[in-house]
Each structure stands twice: as structure tokens, then as C-alpha cells.
Amino acid sequence: MELRVDTVSCQRGGLVVLEGVSFVVTPGEAVVLRGPNGIGKTTLLRTIAGLQPPVTGTVSAPEDAMAYAGHADGLKGPLSVRQNLEFWAEVYGQRDITPALELYALGPLADRQAQDLSAGQKRRLGLARMMVTGRPIWILDEPTVSLDVANVALFGEMIAAHLAGGGMALMATHIELGVTATTLDLGPYKAVTPAEDMATDEAFL
Ligand SMILES: Nc1ncnc2c1ncn2[C@@H]1O[C@H](COP(=O)(O)OP(=O)(O)OP(=O)(O)O)[C@@H](O)[C@H]1O
Question: Cystine design at 167: which of 76, 162, 188, 203 (Cβ 3.0–4.6 Å)?
């Protein structure tokens, strides 16, 4: 079981942003993507998660091993916290949402509609969703946005627990999580033709 990214080039808006990215994530390992705004972290994560095809190269992982959490929270506003987690648990064939409720301190909020949560609480629910997928490879794009210091620490603990259980994490984040991680600087993979000056409307559509 591993995630293998082999000479992947990826595009946004029809233009290649990163070229020849290769790395492997093994059980118990976290890899953090680093690079300045706009270099292509989100684009690469979406490509690895299978939301868009690579231009060249391959992404290999066991079937149904990955769970992705992007910028959009993916929550159902009218459903309660509990119902959101139950929904995702059912989608991923899991049953018990109790550990996720407990680990993210969502118990007191369990019956509140997701749309009535604060931004940070929504983010916590979005991360709890990763737990109930039961999937070993977590792909996380800026997972700590809107989290306060205490919840960033909580998130770090949750990632550490996931890794200790043999899970893997691939994340784009600008902040220090307090988790032992391999850092991958995307600077050397920046495509020769920068995308900044050539925006189109088709990105992510
Ligand atoms: N509509 C578009 N058409 C073409 N290129 C675009 C479009 N929208 C964004 N881009 C460019 O695609 C590149 C990759 O963007 P991406 O969001 O993957 O970068 P990022 O490293 O995740 O950025 P950030 O750290 O700001 O979240 C950027 O240079 C961006 O300007």
C-alpha cells in the first residue's frame, strides 16, 4: 500500500502549471507540499485525487484508498452535524461516527445544522468527515484554514493518530502542524510557461 506519483504534469485552465512531479507516500508518512501562492498545489492535489487527469505521468494507489478534502467544505447545510457524518459514513460503507464526533469535540454540536456552525466548526466537521471515510490516504488542501490555535493542535494530533494507524497524508499547507512530515518543495517543478498571464474561464469547471 502506497501512493506513487510518477513524473506527473498537471494543468489548470488548459495550461500546464507543474511538470515532472514524482514522489511516494508510504504508510505512516505525511508529505507536505510547499510553494508560493499560485504554483499549483491545489491543481496537483486535485490531479492526484483523480478529480482531473494528469497531462502526463501516472498516479498509482490501491482502488478506493483516497479521500480528498478541498477548499469547499462539502457539507450539507440543512443536515445536522451528526447527519452529515452519518451520510458520509454511509457513502463510504462505514458505520460508527462516534470516534469522529469525539476526536473533533463535535458531540455538543451534534444536533446543530451544519449551516449554523462557525467557519472553524465547519472546518472541524469537514476534517471529521475524513475520519469516517475509513480510507487510508488523505489528500488535504489547506486543512487548517479557519482553525484557531487549539484546533490546529487538535488537527495535528488527529493526523498523528491517522499516521500511527498506518494511514498516509498528503497536504498543502503554509503552517507548521507539529507533525513529522516530509516536505516537498514544488518550486523545481514549475512549468516553463507560467499560467499567471494566460487565465481562462475553464479552470476547475
Ligand atoms: N482560470 C484560470 N486559467 C488559467 N490559470 C489559472 C486560472 N485560475 C488560476 N490559474 C492559475 O493556475 C495556477 C495554479 O493555481 P493553484 O490554485 O493550483 O495554486 P496554489 O499553489 O494552490 O495556490 P494557493 O497557494 O494560492 O492556494 C496559478 O498560477 C493560477 O494563477
Answer: 162
Q: Name the helix (H) or strand (E) containing 139.
A: strand 137-141
Handedness of CA 181, 187, 188, 194 (dihedral sign): positive
Of residues 139, 151, 202, 201, the one with CA closest to residue 175: 151
Q: Is 190 helix (H, G, I), strand (E, B) or coil?
A: strand
Q: What is the pLDDT of residues 36-67, one digit of tens each?
A: 999 999 999 999 999 999 999 999 999 999 99
CA of 170 to the centre of ligand 1 (A): 19
Q: Is residue 57 part of a domain?
A: yes
User: Is the minimum distance from the CB of 145 to ligand 1 under 6 angstroms?
Assistant: no
pTM (2 decimals)? Answer: 0.88
Whether residue 40 has its Cβ less than 6 Å from ligand 1: yes
The reply to whether 195 falls in a domain is yes
Ligand 1 pocket member 203 (CB < 6 A): yes
| Domain assignment of residue 17, given as a range | 1-65+167-199
Residue 204 Cα: closest atom of ligand 1: 1
